[in-house]
Amino acid sequence: MKSTGHIVILLLAAVALTSAEILNKEWWRSTVFYQIYPRSFMDSDGDGVGDLKGITSKLDHIKDAGVGAIWLSPIYKSPMVDFGYDIEDFRNVDKTFGTLDDLKALIARAKELALKVVLDLVPNHTSDKHEWFLKSLNKTSKYADYYMWRDGKNGSTSLPPNNWLSVFNGTGWTFNEVRNQWYFHQFYREQPDLNYTNPDVQEEMKDVMKYWLDMGIDGFRIDAVPHMFESNIDKDEPPSTLSKNSSEYIYLSHIYTKDQPQTYDLIQNWREFVDKYADDRNQDEKVILTEAYTSWENTIKYYRYGSNVPFNFKFITDANSNSTAADFKKIIDHWRGSTPSGFAPNWVMGNHDRARIGTRYPGRTDQMTMLAMILPGVAVTYYGEEIGMVDNSTLKVYDFRDGCRTPMQWNDNAQAGFSTNATTWLPVNTNYRELNLEKEKKDPNSHYNLYKSLTSLRKSSVALKYGNTRAFVVDNDVLAVVRSTSDEVVALLINFSNDKSTTVDVANLTNWKGTSIKASSVNSEVKLNNGVNVKAVQIPAKASIILMSGAAIISSFSVVSLLFVAFAALLRS
I need a surface site. Which of 241, 310, 373, 453 has the fewest CB within 10 A? Predict the structure, then answer.
């Protein structure tokens, strides 16, 4: 038992620690994650494709924007059938993006800037060019059972084992003449599924994770999680009621090929693996983010099985430009009410597979960004959202996702400053001369400067760090998200009307103590000011504003909270 004198010393030591140092073990809880699609971020060698050196050269921008962690979409060696999600070598970098030394340099520079680095882990499948698959073709030792091999119906070479479909439509089975069997693939035929009922495969993927953790990676975003296990391989899946086209993925109810219970046990096993890795080395917690397009219940369940951030796609899948304030309140309340106690909610507005915010919600880019930033927990930003990029609608697309993957718009030079090449892998959006980072940095009323003010507010506001959260619908069209402590209030007001300015009374929503407009959406023409009358707050159509009330400093409440956390941590040590 420690003496009173020791306790006092510990408390004094706690005062000397910053909140960042105290909470560093769970650094991800209120972090802004920034997804980089490497092909499209910055081209350093003039070949028209983004690369790792290009990303490294722009890390200062990410730091300046107030981001805490970057997440890199796949950079592994790949034939690029699915732009890197078909992996030929899990332990090497594709030459498109550079070398392992380039990645090491990126990680080192990120650490200098106090940025965490998260890698995409794509465990469901490999490329059909992967060494494991080539060995499996010939039934070489343990690799014989690394993939989902089966004979066709009644031994047929023309009829697959069952009716299972690919997520990309059409049969999920491909016949291989070398092995004289069919293999299953949830995605493209060039992406054979690994067999996770095989313990060797599970251990193999742990070895892959350790390889990257040893290199300094801070965690993994795990791709396509619900598809990793299959069951009842001798049975057909039943039809759904969603399509009459038997080749469409949604034609079937995927009761054997999605959301299998073993998936959760596997994620929990990986959680324990990365936790032990970090604990053995006295390192910060390694974050696990999971991608699962599935039901509310199945998504939330990942919290209890090791995922720090089970991606919340509900603003993408369950809302659109016609959604109302009440629709958004329902999503917010449902997610927060479902998040288990002690876990952090998260809010994803866009990614490499979906149309950009400004395309899905025309004229409402800032509304969505402000919402993700003001709500509690983790916010995820897709590259370019900080400047309001939209899909390139003029593209003749090869892939249905190309529109949201166009090059980052750095300035108004040729190719938006992304590349010195006359052409780029995808054409730069034609709006780059008007919409680019360099121009927005100079304009105080820009998407970028609003974004910076939001990330800054997240770091400085007591209410956004520790406050409770309530969502209201005011006068049908206005969504109010109120974050508050006894000393401070931060409230986001969003007008969902497309054509009607409104004046709302928000006096009864919280205990206001002198109120100012802290931020407003671009082109709203709402000026920042003090002395707001909370009984009559005017919000133009499609506009959003942030009201702030009380002290914008660390209050006595938060100091005590920080001391308590520090004291508990020191006692445990």
Answer: 241
| Single-letter residue type at 328 | F
Using alpha carbons, select from 318, 233, 223 the residue that is nearest to residue 263. 223
* Backbone φ and ψ of 276, nearest 5°: -65, -40
d(C-alpha 189, C-alpha 196), whole Å: 18
Kind of pairing between the strands at 181-184 and 346-348 = unpaired
Distance, CA of 563 to CA of 373 (rounded, Å) = 26
Out of 88, 102, 223, 487, the active site residue is 223
Please spell the DSSP secondary structure of 404-471, one letter per residue. Answer: G-PPP---SSGGGGS-SSSS-SSPPPGGGGTS-HHHHHH-SSSHHHHHHHHHHHHHH-HHHHH-EEEE
Query: How many DSSP H helices and E strands does the chain contain?
Result: 17, 21
Active site residue 190: no
pTM over 0.90: yes
Question: In the structure encoding, which two tokens stand for residue 234, read together?
Answer: 């001798």
Half-sphere exposure of 28 (CA within 13 A, CB side): 26
Q: Which helix (H) or strand (E) holds 64?
A: helix 59-64
Annotated active-site residue in 193, 218, 291, 385: 291
Annotated catalytic residue 21:
no
Tokens for 425, please give them.
């892998």
Q: How far apart are CA 447 and CA 356, in angstroms?
A: 14
Nearest alpha-carbon partner for 87 in 144, 146, 36, 130: 130
- CA–CA gap between residue 196 and residue 179 (Å, rounded): 20
What is the DSSP secondary-structure string of 228-289? S----TTSPPPB-SS-S-TTSGGGB--TTTSS-HHHHHHHHHHHHHHHHHHHHTT-PPPEEE
pLDDT in tens, 485-531: 999 999 999 999 999 999 999 999 999 999 999 999 999 999 999 89
- pLDDT tens by residue, 74-133: 999 999 999 999 999 999 999 999 999 999 999 999 999 999 999 999 999 999 999 999
Q: In what order do the strands lie in the sheet with 181-184?
A: 149-150, 181-184, 173-176
First to last CA, the chain: 13
